[in-house]
Amino acid sequence: MDKRVYLLTIVSFVVGLVELILGGILDLVAVDLEVSLGKVGMLISIFSLVFAIFGPILLTATAKVERKKLTLISLLIFFLANLLAIFSTGYFMLMIARIISAMSGSLLIALCVTIASNIVLKQYRARAIGIVFMGISASLVLGVPIGLMLGNAFGWRAPFLMITILTAISFIGIYFFMERMNPKPSISLKEQLKTLKNGKLLLIQLTSFLFLAGHLTLYAYLTPFLQMTMGLDGTWISLMYLIFGIAAIIGGGVGGMLSDRFGPQKTIIGIIIVFALSLFTIPYTTSVLPLFLLVMMAWSMLSWAITPAIQSYLIASAPETSDIQQSLNNSALHFGIAFGSMIGGVVIERATVEMNATVGGVLVLVSLLIISLTMKAKKQNAVSGDFTSEAMKEYKAN
């Protein structure tokens, strides 16, 4: 397989870092910019919301631009946006930096997937795309602990400095090692959204949205949760995030094995039930550290264990448009991150941080209800009648 795929994985990792990197340094940013924790948390929501909305839009709008050139332009804008974050002197300035980095980052992820699938032989396409998404998954898991460690050691701007350096390295790598790549016809955003006229597919995507929203309601505010309920300092919190990250990475593999062994439907139901229980119980385990660690590790593992099962369920439910559904699912996940961190910010402002876990658990239970409806529904074709045969032929040809 073409080793340049790993260069694209580095790009996807760098872009993914920006999304949740504020999660571990909420208190540092809040103190420096003189705003509340909830308000800083909204910067995570804003990033995820812009990312989810503008990814498909910008990819469609730039469909005729040569791919290498577009990637370099996007990397440059992403670099400047994070440079702006480093020199932000106020909340509004940092918000603008987050919006610009989200827009350029959403396009970069789409380009990485597209380029990866085109530079390898046909039989390696799925593997190449999977490797690119590994970069995203790793960044979402490791972004918070990396931000926490750098932030505590050098200040909250240090993580953004690291991101600008990695972006510059990525720019150089793309410039020298990627050749020009002409764009190919793609399915329009309108046609992609038409596939969601299939009720079953819409409900599966909604499940991903609600599940991750429930997770982020607490996870985006895990630092203040650990500080306020357990009185942990920066070193202990860094250790907690490290344990959380390792468990989450393991969870992805476990989820895949469970899905293969028991099928995606049973796996999704089981994971959601245990995940909800872990969220509801975690505030009551903070007085016993070993018990808290066990519950936290279960919560962490299951937060990523569901992803392979959801992806398998989408493929089984919509084999004709599986690639499109994967793309839409990525947007659903980022909408979930945005919504969950926003809800968490409201809860921590109006109640206590312990309530974040309860509210998150309720959202997860709603996702259980939603996914149950898809399993009772009759099988339908994943492609609605409005998804034109000509568009499908053009999509399959490329």
Automatic annotation (TrEMBL):
InterPro entries assigned to the protein according to its UniProt record, in alphabetical order: MFS, MFS_dom, MFS_Efflux_Transporters, MFS_trans_sf, Tet-R_TetA/multi-R_MdtG-like
Keyword line: Cell membrane, Membrane, Transmembrane, Transmembrane helix, Transport
UniProt-annotated location(s): Cell membrane
Residue runs in coiled coils: none
Membrane topology: Multi-pass membrane protein
Gene3D superfamilies to which the protein is assigned, alphabetical: MFS general substrate transporter like domains
Protein origin, superkingdom: Bacteria
Residue stretches spanning the membrane: 7-30, 42-63, 70-93, 99-121, 128-150, 156-178, 199-222, 234-255, 267-285, 354-373
Keyword Cell membrane annotated: yes
GO molecular function: transmembrane transporter activity
GO annotation, cellular component aspect: plasma membrane
One Pfam family matching this protein: MFS_1
Domain Major facilitator superfamily (MFS) profile: from-to ranges: 4-379
PANTHER family registered for this protein in UniProt: PURINE EFFLUX PUMP PBUE
Descriptive protein name: Major facilitator transporter
Organism for this UniProt entry: Alkalihalobacillus alcalophilus ATCC 27647 = CGMCC 1.3604
